[in-house]
Amino acid sequence: MASQDLFEDFKKSKAALEKVHYDMVKYFDEIVRKLSNKGIADVAEELRYKTSPVQASPEEIRVMAQTAAMADVHLEFDDTLAELLYTAKEKKEVTDLFDQEPALIFVGQINCGKSSIINELLGCKALPTSDQPSTARIVRVCYAEEPYCRLVDTHGKTLEEIKMMGKEGNRIPREKIELGPNDRDDPRRVGAIVETGINIEFLKCGITIIDSPGINESEALDNLVKEQLENPLAFVIYVVDGHNLFTKQDREILNEMTSSETDLSIFFVVNKLEPEDRTESSDEEDEPSGHVASVKARKERELEVQNSRKTRVYRRLVQNGHFPSQLPMNQNERFHGLSARRIKQYHALKKKNPEASFEEFADYTKAFERFQNSLKEFAKESLRARIECVCKTLVRVLSRCLDFFIQKATFLKNGKKQILKTLEILLREEQQVHDNIIRDLEDEKRVMDIKELLSDAINGAREDILKEAGDFEYVLTEFTIPSRGHVKEKAAVAYCQDQIQGMVVNKLQGEIKQKLTMMLGSRELFLVHLKDRIKQIQGEIARDNDIPSAALALGKSLLSSYEAQITFSKRDGAALRSIKKLSVRFYKAIRNPIKTIIKTISGEVQVGSKKWKTDVASNALAKVNPSDMAQKIVTSLKQLFCDCHEEFTGEIRKVQDLFDRGETIKDMQRETLLGFAPNLALLEMLAYGVIDRFKFEFPVKGELIRTGAQESVFACDNIKTPEGRPCVVKVVSVASEEVLKDLTLELHNTR
């Protein structure tokens, strides 16, 4: 693949991933809006915990989510749900790819020959070179139809327009790259960068070349170089001076680079492999013209020098952990040796005499050609690795959310089935308990037990009732009792008598209810537990439906709820009617219509005296017949329990019907969650498509294998599995976007 094709393919892949990213952000916002619905709050909270950096156990997640939903609150998080679905770190991993362009960054010590290598790659002398070291600025070189050059500050603002030099108008003046004495006192100019655009074929592919100044020249320049290295699409070419070999400073520079950038890939070049002076190799001027043997001998000596220098540098790199020890130097495509000076000489001679072979430069040109090919492959691998990394991040985010929604929807479906089974079990359990209590109440022994219970209740409450009667204060609306507590009217006496007797009734009722609750305690505990379970199940019914009152029916049959049902007089249910009947019978049994005898002397009754009040209460207690009351209580309880049982059974059938019709919160939740899946699966497939195309290339259809109603299968001529097995191409007819989404969901489940 040509360089231009390589980078063009990269641009297309980057554009595709950028669209996937922005569609993800948009769709996650839509998901969050839908999950803000009260009916699906518990799922939203569960998803928060699933994706939160602080991980909890599945049981903790379930309890916390249910608690949040039952309380009708959203738990507070430092991040929004959208940020938890697609974290800031994950977004940065992805968007870094979109914000930068591929760049070859040449790094190395001062005067190691970085600019010379760049010029040979470009095929022109765009950058000034010199054997004299000088402090220089960073230079960014990119493609432009019309050449330009300018000095810009760290914010991209142009400080100076620079006129290009040379016949082609593509050479940067040396003085604009070097830092002058006046520049060092101006922070803006010290941190300024030279940006240039030139019309060079090599740059048409879209890559930027960055020539960095020598490391450790100044702190400001070093920081600028570090900023350039933060580009995730930066391909670092580290240049080692072949004359100085691998120095302590080289080691320190590389250690600092790799310590801050753990995934930084570096391409190494040893420059200046040509002999440094006559002690290493004789110059061609000392050889007789046309002396083939001497030229051959000189080439062999130069080759020995090259190998010696490369080997010494390579060993140092292996020792410092930049290459594995088992990888031979000559097989390492990320390590090269060359001579930019010799290549420059070759091109100059070739330009003068295109027909000449210049055999003495063959090793240098061959090494440079290998360097160019390997550099292109290095860029290709680096770009693919970066694309693959971003694809994996996108797929990880999408798969994580997609799996959660699918698993949760499946759980909700299974949960619905389980609830229907549970309702049948609860019906059977309630029926069994009801049958047992009715048989129990029909047993004569139970009537005797209740009679004893009533006797105990009356005797146990007598002392408190008489004490309260003595201290009783009337609530009078029609009559007034004089301060001395004597009244004449018969109606007033009866009115006071009724109030004291009513107090006795209430006290006895409370005592009897307490005793009955203790007697039937196991039934009460079962019904309380059953009521809670039914109430929880009823909570699953969608809010726009009439909620069945199965739990309420159970509550009516609870003995402990009598007081509550009496208090709420608006509801004239079975339990309330039974209690009213019981109260009336009880009251009639103990009511003693006193034939008030007006004292012949005073003609008054002392209703305000403690003795009169306690006498009335004692007389009322004496009129209670435990045997008669026991039979009436049993009859009323049987009627109450049967009425509530029938009501409960009917309401449970309504609950089952709503679940069967899918009119529950879980059905709504499941429908909502499954609605997310196709769009997420489509985005996932698009991300997978980019990585698969980079990994396997676009499949080429071969011979038709079979055809069906909606698909055709072909042999694949250009792709094999990692095991070397042939692949096939499946062409599926997609009639609509919805069909495509369903297909991508199927692909997700089969990957």
From TrEMBL:
- Superkingdom classification of source: Eukaryota
Q: Where in the cell is it found?
A: Cytoplasm
Decide whether keyword Glycoprotein is in the record: no
Q: Which Gene3D superfamilies match?
A: P-loop containing nucleotide triphosphate hydrolases
Where is this protein chiefly located? cytoplasm
Key word Nucleotide-binding present: no
* Entry keyword set: Cytoplasm, Kinase, Serine/threonine-protein kinase, Transferase
GO CC terms = cytoplasm
Q: Name one GO molecular function term.
A: protein serine/threonine kinase activity
* All residue ranges annotated as the Dynamin N-terminal domain in the record: 105-272
The name on file for this protein is Dynamin N-terminal domain-containing protein
Please give the organism.
Pocillopora meandrina
